[in-house]
Specification:
The complex is a heterodimer of chains A (about 600) and B (about 280).
Chain A: H1 25-31, H2 51-57, E1 59-64, E2 69-71, E3 79-85, E4 88-91, H3 110-118, H4 129-132, H5 134-137, E5 144-147, E6 150-153, H6 158-164, E7 167-170, E8 175-176, H7 178-183, E9 190-193, E10 197-203, H8 204-210, H9 214-234, H10 244-253, E11 255-260, H11 264-271, H12 276-282, E12 285-287, E13 295-310, E14 313-320, E15 325-326, H13 328-336, E16 349-362, H14 363-370, H15 381-384, H16 387-412, H17 431-439, E17 448-452, H18 461-469, E18 477-483, E19 486-490, E20 509-511, E21 518-520, H19 530-534, E22 541-544, E23 563-566, H20 579-583, E24 589-592, H21 597-606
Antiparallel strand pairs in A: 1-10, 2-9, 3-8, 3-10, 4-7, 4-9, 5-6, 11-16, 12-16, 13-14, 13-15, 13-16, 17-19, 17-24, 18-19, 20-21, 22-23
Helix pairs in contact in A: 9-10, 10-14
Chain B: H1 6-36, H2 41-63, H3 73-94, H4 103-135, H5 145-161, H6 166-185, H7 190-194, H8 199-211, H9 217-275
The chains are: A alpha+beta (about 600), B mainly alpha (about 280).
């Protein structure tokens, strides 16, 4: 008999961490009397995750006051909101940054840049009263107020805003924010409370299980398919020549699938230390190498790892990000091959790194509707050689469609003369660098700071320049993980998947829609530290702020120090651009997009 | 890795060097022409030198103005480098001997040559030392080196206290007190900072290895930990020595450049007064 001693522990369960620990049985019972929960089929839910459990652990009740901003356009979020009582307004027009309490990025002239440099503070993290709180600048109007136990931001002149901007009213039973929550995309509209209202916030995990109710799922599915899928498909460059009728057939056949955990940042510290083989084994499998291709996978959001069996393990050959395709080589080849040739199987596996949302286009739809409208130069090499015979077979159909094609091309392509590059993923010739980048999720970085240690003389001119343009406060430290001769510095990477932006109670951390720079708006930052805790790379610091005489700001009620989140803002607005890169005397430092391979490959080639 | 870009860098360097040499040749030609018509080429080369010095000083100005879009400092460094080569050549055309006669002129020559030599050493150092720094385990920030040094010393002290075997305690504690503690607690010597080498490391690791035969399992484990800490500390000192050298070089080169500019101006004023 086996007498090995055992250690009894409580098995971790699905709802160990509820969204709101203060939800009571009474709250759940009340919610179940409200639509759509009162119409849900309870038998559709698994025994381990009943409807009451979802309401109890994956939901939170909110009371909002008139004028309160519930979600802001451009924000990222993990939750959808269901209106229980009252009314909210969805603003069709975009609000200005000032209306949302944010400071718009302002271009600073040479004179002002010099004046700021000369008037640098002697104390770290100096702020003016207006920068510390928007309430100080709002002329008596409390732009940030406590509603129950949370800070909330309010629009000024709500009636004027509603009069000037087009908006849509939502009433009890209506859901909003579900697309951003489910598919990790920025919110597309700002929603404000028109009257006092009660809302249920449902986190995405709960929302996914709620889809087991057929009626609820159908409503969500129809909404997504009607409003969002066409937009998402049209964002795919390879489909830019697709005529409208073909596009409609693609829309009908496409399915959206999700893999992995959206809160990948919570596990990041643990998983990055795993052996690559263990990490790959732990990643959810999307497509297995050796399967016969049945669908083209288009990455909608998140990250994928393309790997190939190598000996007893898997070797990473590329990583995929938004807009990248998986399986196009095999599918194009199989669709164009003569009947005498055997079809090929998927040559690689695809796994979700963290989370992966993918659009899946069935092979027959892709071959019939999309393939004839792809440029030869954009086809994979293997399929290009077969294209001639394939083109002849389809020449009649193409002639008929030529007029429609030109119309579609005008509509969808900003520059139709340009071929699409790297549509099938990102790879480096150095496998170890690739493994390193994926292991540490550096492929999330759009403006990662990379230092070539073979050139860097450790002079810290980059840090000094950063401090000089930020009132004496450097926004990064020259340290970070090292691979070979490259150091990936702990500076904000302005990520593709900005997890730091999820959960900010006042929308103080935002992404500039034109530049992609993620920055913090001091006046509405309440210093809660949610962003700093969420950033897996630890690139956001919380700093206690002082005035120009060095006197600390404190909360007038609690006496606690006022803290603000501080991070790299890419020197937005400065005439010089990022000062760190410009200050390096040996061209050792670069801000680079790691979500694509060419920038880093080119940079490395230049110094090889 | 594709090396197609490699030649492009080499081409850039070749073009820049060629242009510099051509400009030097033109200036040499002008000087010869001036000499042949009994002119005073020293005026021409002298003012060119002074202009070159001002141009060289602009790198320092650019470094202090990070907020203006004046081009990257690396571009300015490249310009600085080739202007430096040009200025050295003009100096050779300007002076009658490598070190001119007279107190002021002699000093000026020596300062110029020191600045030039430090500049050329800078090119060598900035291209070789970073690779040496990267080859060593751990990338330490200069301002944190003291803190890391204290951490290593504390870890060594803790490791020594962990020994439970009486025999090992006696052997290792004695060795720790005599050899390791002074090594961990003190900063590296000036000799080491000037010319870092592996002698200390080899000696201490060899001595620790020697102790193995007096130790049992627990003692050997602690000796292994101490050996790892010796390596870490030596790597840290190596980083410190090389980083300090790079920093000292910048300070030396820039301070001496300021002195050079000041003495050059004095020299110019004196020459102009003498010429009338």
């Amino acid at each position: 008999m086996d007498s090995t001693p055992t250690i009894p522990v409580q098995r971790p369960s699905r709802w160990d961490e509820p969204l709101d620990a203060s939800m009571t049985d009474a709250d759940v019972a009340w919610l179940r009397t409200r639509g759509p929960f009162n119409q849900m089929d309870q038998s559709a839910f698994p025994r381990a995750t009943p409807l009451s459990g979802i309401l109890r652990y994956d939901c939170r009740l909110h009371r909002v006051e008139p004028g309160e901003v519930i979600v802001r356009e451009g924000d990222y979020g993990n939750s959808a909101f269901l209106l229980i009582t009252g009314n909210v307004r969805v603003l069709v027009d975009s609000l200005t940054d000032q209306q949302l309490g944010r400071q718009p990025t302002r271009s600073i002239g040479w004179g002002e840049a010099l004046s700021r440099f000369l008037r640098r503070s002697r104390h770290p993290e100096t702020r003016t009263p207006e920068q510390v709180s928007i309430n100080a600048a709002a002329g008596g109007h409390q732009a940030i107020r406590q509603v129950d136990d949370r800070p909330a931001i309010f629009l000024q002149d709500i009636e004027g805003v509603l009069r000037r901007h087009e908006s849509v009213s939502l009433g009890p039973g209506e859901l909003f924010g579900e697309v951003a929550a489910m598919y990790r995309s920025p919110r597309t509209a700002t929603v404000i409370a028109e009257t006092e209202a009660a809302l249920v916030e449902i986190r995405w995990q709960g929302l996914r299980i709620l889809r087991r109710d057929r009626r609820f799922a159908d409503t969500l599915e129809q909404h997504y398919r009607r409003h969002w899928l066409p937009i998402h498909l049209r964002e795919i460059p390879l489909l830019r020549y697709l005529p409208e009728e073909n596009m409609q057939r693609v829309i009908e056949a496409t399915e959206l699938r999700s893999y992995g955990r959206m809160e990948w940042n919570a596990d990041y510290k643990k998983t990055r230390k795993l052996h690559p083989a263990d990490q790959i084994a732990a990643e959810p499998l999307v497509v297995d190498q050796g399967q016969l291709p049945t669908e083209l996978i288009v990455v909608r959001s998140g990250f994928g790892r393309m790997c190939v069996r190598h000996g007893a393990a898997h070797r990473t050959v590329a990583y995929l990000g938004k807009g990248h395709l998986f399986g196009i080589d095999e599918i194009a080849y199989n669709a164009m091959r003569p009947e005498s040739m055997r079809p090929i199987h998927y040559q690689h596996s695809l796994r979700a790194v963290g989370f992966l949302d993918a659009l899946s286009i069935p092979i027959e739809v892709f071959a019939a509707e999309v393939l004839p409208h792809i440029r030869k130069s954009e086809l994979p090499e293997s399929a290009r050689s077969l294209q001639k015979s394939f083109t002849e077979k389809r020449s009649d159909r193409r002639r008929v469609r030529s007029d429609q094609r030109s119309e579609a091309a005008d509509r969808f392509s900003p520059d139709p003369t340009q071929d699409i590059e790297h549509a099938a993923g990102v790879s480096f010739e150095s496998t170890s660098l690739l493994e390193f980048i994926v292991q540490h999720r550096l492929n999330n970085g759009r403006e990662a700071m990379v230092i070539d240690l073979h050139r860097c003389t450790r002079c810290d001119d980059c840090v000094k320049a950063c401090a000089d343009v930020h009132d004496g406060n450097p926004r990064f430290v020259r340290q970070g993980i090292v691979h070979d001769r490259l150091q990936f510095v702990q500076a904000c990477m302005h990520c593709s998947d900005p997890v730091c932006m999820i959960g900010c109670p006042t929308g103080a951390i935002t992404r500039d829609q034109t530049t992609g720079v993620v920055s913090i708006h001091d006046p509405i930052c309440v210093g809660c530290g949610v962003c700093a805790a969420a950033c897996p790379y630890e690139n956001i610091a919380m700093a206690e702020v002082v005035d120009r005489k060095g006197r600390p700001y404190v909360d007038e009620k609690s006496g606690n120090a006022i803290r603000k989140a501080a991070k790299c803002d890419q020197c937005s607005g400065l005439p010089s651009g990022p000062a760190c890169a410009a200050a390096c005397p040996h061209d050792a430092l670069v801000r680079i997009d790691l979500s694509e391979s060419p920038p880093l490959s080119d940079w490395l080639e230049k110094r090889s | 890795m594709n090396r197609s870009q490699g030649p492009r860098l080499r081409t850039r360097r070749l073009v820049a060097l060629s242009v510099t040499l051509v400009v030097i040749a033109i200036f040499w030609g002008i000087t010869r022409w001036e000499t042949s018509r009994l002119g005073m080429p020293a005026f021409f080369t002298g003012f060119t030198l002074l202009a070159g010095l001002f141009l060289l000083m602009l790198l320092g100005v650019r470094r202090r103005l990070p907020f203006w879009p004046l081009g990257s400092v690396s571009t300015w460094t490249q310009i600085h480098l080739y202007v430096g080569i040009f200025t050295t050549a003009i100096y050779v055309l300007h002076v009658p001997a490598l070190i001119a006669g007279g107190v002021l002129e002699g000093c000026l020559s020596i300062i110029f040559l020191m600045v030039t030599a430090s500049g050329f050493y800078g090119i060598y150092a900035s291209r070789t030392l970073p690779k040496k720094l990267t080859a060593v385990e751990g990338q330490h920030r200069f301002d944190r080196i003291d803190w890391v040094r204290n951490q290593i010393a504390a870890a060594a002290d803790k490791a020594c206290r962990q020994i439970s075997e009486t025999s090992a305690k006696q052997v290792l504690e004695t060795f720790y007190q005599q050899a390791l503690s002074p090594f961990f607690v003190s900063r590296p010597t000036l000799a080491y900072v000037i010319a870092p080498n592996g002698n200390r490391r080899r000696r201490l690791l060899g001595d620790l290895k020697e102790l193995d035969r007096y130790l049992e399992e627990d003692g050997r484990r602690v000796a292994g930990q101490l050996a790892a800490l010796v390596r870490r500390r030596d790597d840290l000192d190596y980083q410190f020595a090389l980083q300090l050298r790079l920093r000292c070089w910048v300070v030396f080169h820039s301070l001496l450049s300021l002195v050079l500019l000041a003495v050059s101006l004095i020299h110019m004023v004196i020459v102009l007064r003498l010429v009338g």
